[in-house]
Amino acid sequence: MNAAPFSGKILILATESCAYPGADAVGQAHMNYPPNTYIIKVKAPVMFPESFYLKCFDKGIAGILIMSCGVECPYEGAYEALAKRIDRVYQLMKERGLDIRRLRLTSICTVCTRAFLNEVQQMNDLVRELGPPGREQTMANPSEKGLKAVTA
């Protein structure tokens, strides 16, 4: 009996001026993407503090895609500030033993349907591979589960 593959929730923060219209174009074209994906339309993802991402993982969100306008952001300096914030989140994730690939910052334009679908599918594949958030910690330290670590 094979267990069903893990299909954890994927949260997408999509900017209202670029990525959200791109996601809408995917829907209008009747293109499919995994049903474990949840999209939130946001003005600018830079408004979310580092703690937001960590709390999402704590609550079971398995992957987060931040789909922004990139350097084309209508808010001056917002993308650069967001990139710095995400770098800080990566450090916090490492400290918690979370795989940083669970959080991805990408640029999606209003007509980038293929890019949107590709990003979602890549994150879905990664989430299936990694399993629930926090699993990395138990896999990295087998002695916590009563298993002996193999040393060379």
TrEMBL record:
Q: Which UniProt keywords apply?
A: Iron, Iron-sulfur, Metal-binding, Oxidoreductase
- For region Disordered, the annotated ranges are 131-152
- Please, which domain of life does this record's source organism belong to? Bacteria
One Pfam family it belongs to: FlpD
One example of the protein's molecular function in GO is: oxidoreductase activity
Q: Does the keyword Metal-binding apply?
A: yes
Domain F420-non-reducing hydrogenase iron-sulfur subunit D, residue spans: 10-131
Q: What is this protein called?
A: Coenzyme F420-reducing hydrogenase delta subunit
UniProt source species: Desulfosoma caldarium
